[in-house]
């Protein structure tokens, strides 16, 4: 379909009163059997799919605006618009709509949304037209009353609008305004204010086009200065003509474009500053005014974007060293406003807009501007840069990676951004916060692309850590050479907090890049120096950074923390905080509680072995005593490394030897899971622990003795029958030994861990365990049962997990149940 007359864009009005572009296609009108009526059909020019199918309802109000727009509402909150490429196509469809509704195509609106009463309808039929009073000074009050009385009735509003259009009434009113102003006739000026405000409320595009024309708009603004409710008139025209000067930084050769820019600025001023706030009016009363501004902005951006000569000159002057500072400031502000206008564009149009700016060299131009000394120019350039980063971060990343091959690190665009962030002179660091947000967007892997032949994440992060990370961390490293921050003023602390927050973000999202950087540069030790700051927010930032690292449960990080004793500044901060119940206290306790709950064995041992004496008196929480208990359990497993296998064998008998029923004492042993003892309270008092262990060990020792007797009897029988091997599963042999340990204990079945040892599950490169796991049970009398059963280690762990999830009733109840 090549007929451009019928080429249209379909728009819908969203909840924010913004027009959303639904696509471009070609419109036609045809009878649709399913809808039982003539309908408007728009088929997409790309694939022929149906963008719009809308029945022309006889009672729907259609509006024709600006010669190329048709707007209507299909439901209470569903507004549609067709924007035609050519006026001829708009006229053709408009005639079709009017034909279906039985209207004269010369009107700009076919119906009104609100029905009138029957009495009004009768009156309107008897008086087909609305006659306006003769436009003269003495009859202004009569005109004002007529306008006010017409506003409540949709049909009367329609007739009033037609009368105002046909008789050129608005221009006559503005002539009287000039007379009244010369005569200082305050009463007449007040009537004119009411009349012009009422005309705005008619919400008609045709009237707006007259009022916003070059020769009328300033007089319209003048009428709106004389609000009867104010003692003195406003001075809007004075502001627009003297204060708000139009600066043509690059000569605009197109007079239509220049006029459109003037008109849009003034209409926007009327909407924002002159008219009362929208809440005063009925809903959607000024929707046409909003649409007028929206489509004007779209048109301005399109006309500027198509003018290659204009944009070429703009970027040439921006980057020219000979351009004076005032001129460059104006150029940058123009470009900033140009980008702000582009936010009204739909996504596909915005794509084309930023692609045009990219082709014109906006990023190299920004790099030059950001290197200048003028703070105002740099601020405007930062705003432009934020538009680009928010819209297309990949475009910015691609540019900086390409320029790194040609330029030194000092003049890279990202490093310029980091330097401006570091050197922000604002006491509240408003600019630094904005720039830090842009940096976070650029280094966020979530918005990075991955294609078949290249991975943006890998390439960009390698670039960033090689060329930019040292610039970002420089203030941190410079300020943390001693045990306390060398500068601890508020502004420096705010900057360091921003840097540490970004590093925390990197720890969460960048895995090995940030890990290598932290360990090689000893970043965590430097960050923890900030816990000694007098500003609590900075100390908390440092604690969040360490907490994020510990939360990864990465043994590389854990060994780094232990090797450098990095819990020491945390413990110092905790002790220096004293008994104060504040965020620092809570954050540090939560960090230690995480180590305890997650059973990070290497860190648990490190903390207790090095800092227990400093923390043992803290009894208002059970965290530290719980850590000590974890540590003691680990040590017991190390001292008695065969405890796990005992438990494994007992479990195997429980689940595999179905031929016999378990006795009560065995049931008590199996149902008392060490995990339950571990995962209950944070700390079990030693006396209670001893008692519970002793209660458990009595039946176990009896069971072990009976087991020994039974197994020896079985062996004797087999020897007598002459069998050389045991039938079924081979019964394990039990070896009994005595232990001089006076303390009876039941240790959880966990292998002893040392960072980097072969038994550590987190140690990199650890394969199969070098020796089969063993377990030991120490009874109250010192009797120890030892057994080697390497095949059941993994199975045993699974069974433990399953059992730990079940809630066991008290032992006394269980023994009754089993009996």
UniProtKB/TrEMBL annotation:
<feature type="compositionally biased region" description="Acidic residues">
    <location>
        <begin position="669"/>
        <end position="681"/>
    </location>
</feature>
<feature type="compositionally biased region" description="Low complexity">
    <location>
        <begin position="731"/>
        <end position="773"/>
    </location>
</feature>
<dbReference type="InterPro" id="IPR016024">
    <property type="entry name" value="ARM-type_fold"/>
</dbReference>
<dbReference type="GO" id="GO:0030289">
    <property type="term" value="C:protein phosphatase 4 complex"/>
</dbReference>
<dbReference type="InterPro" id="IPR011993">
    <property type="entry name" value="PH-like_dom_sf"/>
</dbReference>
<feature type="compositionally biased region" description="Acidic residues">
    <location>
        <begin position="789"/>
        <end position="804"/>
    </location>
</feature>
<comment type="function">
    <text>Regulatory subunit of serine/threonine-protein phosphatase 4.</text>
</comment>
<dbReference type="GO" id="GO:0005654">
    <property type="term" value="C:nucleoplasm"/>
</dbReference>
<dbReference type="GO" id="GO:0072542">
    <property type="term" value="F:protein phosphatase activator activity"/>
</dbReference>
<protein>
    <recommendedName>
        <fullName>Serine/threonine-protein phosphatase 4 regulatory subunit 3</fullName>
    </recommendedName>
</protein>
<dbReference type="Pfam" id="PF22972">
    <property type="entry name" value="EVH1_PP4R3"/>
</dbReference>
<feature type="domain" description="Serine/threonine-protein phosphatase 4 regulatory subunit 3-like central">
    <location>
        <begin position="142"/>
        <end position="633"/>
    </location>
</feature>
<feature type="domain" description="PP4R3 EVH1-like">
    <location>
        <begin position="5"/>
        <end position="101"/>
    </location>
</feature>
<feature type="compositionally biased region" description="Basic and acidic residues">
    <location>
        <begin position="703"/>
        <end position="717"/>
    </location>
</feature>
<comment type="similarity">
    <text>Belongs to the SMEK family.</text>
</comment>
<dbReference type="Pfam" id="PF04802">
    <property type="entry name" value="PP4R3"/>
</dbReference>
<feature type="region of interest" description="Disordered">
    <location>
        <begin position="669"/>
        <end position="819"/>
    </location>
</feature>
<dbReference type="InterPro" id="IPR055236">
    <property type="entry name" value="EVH1_PP4R3"/>
</dbReference>
<dbReference type="InterPro" id="IPR051137">
    <property type="entry name" value="PP4R3-like"/>
</dbReference>
<dbReference type="InterPro" id="IPR006887">
    <property type="entry name" value="P4R3-like_central_dom"/>
</dbReference>
<dbReference type="GO" id="GO:0006974">
    <property type="term" value="P:DNA damage response"/>
</dbReference>
